[in-house]
Amino acid sequence: TGSEEKSPGCFSIDFTVAVVLPAGGSGERTGLSTPKQFCTFLNRPLISYTIQAFERIAWIENIVVVIAKDSIDLMVNIIQQFGHKKVKVVLGGSTRHRSIFNGLQAFGESEEESALKKPKVVIIHDAVRPFVEEDFLLKIAIAAKQQGASGAIRPLVSTVIATTSEGYLDHSLERAKYRASEMPQGFLYDVIHQAYVQCSETDFEFGTECLHLVLQYCGTNARLIEGPHTLWKVTYKKDLLAAESIIKETLAQTACVVAGQCEESSRLAGALQKTLGSQDMHVDIVPTSLRRSSAFISKTWNFVHVTVNTAGLADVEELVKTFEETAHSVLYSVVLILVHLDVSEQTSASERMAALGGIRSLAAEAKRKNILLYGILLNPVKDAGQWEEAVENLSQIISALIKERSPALAGQLLWV
Amino acid sequence: TGSEEKSPGCFSIDFTVAVVLPAGGSGERTGLSTPKQFCTFLNRPLISYTIQAFERIAWIENIVVVIAKDSIDLMVNIIQQFGHKKVKVVLGGSTRHRSIFNGLQAFGESEEESALKKPKVVIIHDAVRPFVEEDFLLKIAIAAKQQGASGAIRPLVSTVIATTSEGYLDHSLERAKYRASEMPQGFLYDVIHQAYVQCSETDFEFGTECLHLVLQYCGTNARLIEGPHTLWKVTYKKDLLAAESIIKETLAQTACVVAGQCEESSRLAGALQKTLGSQDMHVDIVPTSLRRSSAFISKTWNFVHVTVNTAGLADVEELVKTFEETAHSVLYSVVLILVHLDVSEQTSASERMAALGGIRSLAAEAKRKNILLYGILLNPVKDAGQWEEAVENLSQIISALIKERSPALAGQLLWV
Ligand SMILES: [Mg+2]
Ligand SMILES: [Mg+2]
What we know:
The structure is a homodimer.
Chain A: E1 17-22, E2 40-41, E3 44-45, H1 46-55, E4 60-67, H2 72-81, E5 87-91, H3 96-105, E6 121-124, H4 134-147, E7 149-154, E8 159-163, E9 169-172, E10 178-188, H5 189-198, H6 201-206, H7 210-218, E11 223-226, H8 237-251, E12 254-259, H9 263-278, E13 282-287, H10 294-297, E14 302-308, H11 313-325, E15 334-341, H12 349-355, H13 359-367, E16 371-378, H14 384-404, E17 413-415
Parallel strand pairs in A: 1-4, 1-6, 4-5, 7-11, 12-13, 12-14, 14-15, 15-16, 16-17
Antiparallel strand pairs in A: 2-3, 6-10, 7-10, 8-9
Bound molecules: magnesium ion (MG) (2 copies).
One magnesium ion binds near residues 209 and 210 of chain B.
């Protein structure tokens, strides 16, 4: 089961890997009152996105999250609310290094029953770098296994200069010779553990680099690997805004159009697939009979339900129930758009509207489950030119609703 | 005129200041086909936002934009479309330093009639750092006047490490002793000009820092000033997304509610001011009679027009015309929301809707002028509890429309 979700990477790892996420920092630099790892966008705290990035990788066995005392309850709630399964929470120390060491102690040697199995390799990452991907983690893990230690580096984005004590330019560094040291870093568990056992109080207090500690205390010289720019760190408010936009954009890359077998349904579904496709949205068309199949549901968080003549509210209600049963809206909101095409000549505009009047109460209920329901009424068109224009406008509205995921507009009935 | 827009800063500058914006770079790092300074968000290229950041400052006289040959036409169109007044376009060179020197040559000594007056101080900035603010530019300009040169610095965000040629860790720098050199930088015009006149071909080809050239060739040691993090540079796609979100958030900080004198209008306007205010939106209430006053219009890009019983489409049409006449939607889209409250007992829901039917064609026309018109119908409520809930829902919808500025949803009639 789930084999299609496994990347090729999982077949080349024949050793155990665990993760330590030190997340005890305060939120000084964001200009926000909440520590940044707990800042929320799209109804979910940043740290949950980072945990998810590791949790979905088959070859990662455990994720130890190291948390300041004041935030333990918050963290436990987050794990429960978002259904994280591989996470263990450990109490942080007074510095970053003490926190990482506490995280490492959660594994292995200890006699406690709650101790996790000691991994061959441990990856250390920042809770505020949510976009780390499997292929790069694989490189870090394999290099750590081979060399004892590994770390992500990036080219310098600015010229680095030394300043005089009076605030004047002293000299600047030759940019090509230096790199920025980033996260993730990987270590043989025994190596990084030994380094912490042996290192001094000064290291615990003021040291900045785990890579240094393993060099100094274990003679292990880290392999440095250039990482992708997606390793960037959420530091300021603008970074939270960027993270939100990236998640929204990623979610908007796919949609599922549920349509009946009749000619009008098929025609509209096909037209939507084409126009949305030209806006870089991959659209699958699913027959009404298969709409509750988990194979389709698990692939996207956006659904367009096309109905012709009959309002289809009962069908939509059933879909909402399915999303609930499959916990599909736990990690991301689900956008569900009911597109109603009335081709019966005799119905008036207000009758068409009345048919969908029930959408508001349904939407209110769905919203409580993180499902955003919108209705769009497609007026009958006379000729091919009008049809094309209507499909174009409809696609733009669907695309806007999917990209914006606005809870405030849920329950609205829009017109094309 | 316009004295309220002048900051205190403009009174302490008693010398001339001009700006050079080298913008000849290619877009390699964004992963986009367009060079990043020309990437568009909210219908406007990044470089226009940066130009605007300087143009609005009274004590900045000229902005020389240095552009690669292939982009000159594009740049001239941008200047015309967005009404930039202080800009001169200059042809770029083969490297960043040659481009800056070309920009400097646009001033002064030359015999050409088109030459700009030579400024005392020239500020050099990146076209891809749009959020630079007046107070910091003032510090840079004054320090440049006093010391001959000045530059923005920032703390390092990552540990900087030296790598061995085999890709292993060599050593890491003591972070506290170093800074990142950023933009803007300021120079006495004569100093930076001299430095370029004297510097070598190698400097033109490979040099990275203007600060170095003035030190080496003019003995001018730059004053380094810590800048705000808002000086960040748009480099990747995520940065464009962040820039768009920041502009949207900034635009959503204010709104103007236009309301009549009747009890219902005043009550609704007051309630909106309170609820939107609690979401950090500063709301001014403007009587219908003053709605075309430029004092109100110039303060915001968001307008909520409250009407009671009469549909108010003619009033809205007049407002659209006013925005057009004052060119108010040139730099940013204007959001105009018509809120219709029908308290006459006898009107049916469909009659209320019909009264606003004309909003679609009006919205289509307004959209061509970058004005986004939306309608919201407020159903009559029975008691105080319902009223509070309705106002809360209305505020959330207004807030979502203002924050999202979605062209696709313009012309829609929403319900509360
Ligand atoms: Mg470290
Ligand atoms: Mg420079």
